[in-house]
Description:
The longest helix has 28 residues, at 2-29. Helix 3 crosses helix 4. The chain has helices at residues 2-29, 33-42, 49-56, 60-72, 94-105, 115-123; strands spanning 76-80, 88-92. The protein has a domain at 32-105: Winged helix-like DNA-binding domain superfamily/Winged helix DNA-binding domain (Arc Repressor Mutant, subunit A, Orthogonal Bundle), CATH 1.10.10. A two-stranded antiparallel sheet has the order 1-2. With 124 residues, the protein is mainly alpha-helical. 15% of the residues are buried.
Amino acid sequence: MMENITCICVMRELFAALSCLEKELIDTHGVTLNEAMILCALGNEHVTASDIANRTGMLPSHTSKVIGALERERLVERQLGKQDKRKIYLSLTKEGKSRLERIKVHKFDIPDLLEPLFKKHHRE
C-alpha cells in the first residue's frame, strides 16, 4: 500500500515540475507544453495528425484540439496530400518555425527533479 502512495507523490512532484516548465513556455513563448511538443514533432516536416499523435504520445482527440489552437495562432497550417487528396498534412508556418527556433535556444530554468533527464538527453 505504501508503494502506491509513494508513486502518486512522485507523480505529483513530476506534474509540478512540468507545470513550472509550462508556465515558463507560456510566459516567454506564448505556447503551452503540448503546443511546444507539437511544434517540435513537426519540425521541418509535413506530417499527418496521426503522426503527431504517435510522436507526442497524445490521444488523437487531444492532438486535434491542440493542432486547432496552433492553427488559430497561425503557427501550423494544413495542406492536402499531393498523391492522395484525402490525406491532410500539417506543417509549421514561417511564424511557427520562428517560434520553434526561439524555444530551442531558450535557456529554461529546469526543475531539479527533471535535471537528470535533461542532462541524459543532452549527452545523446
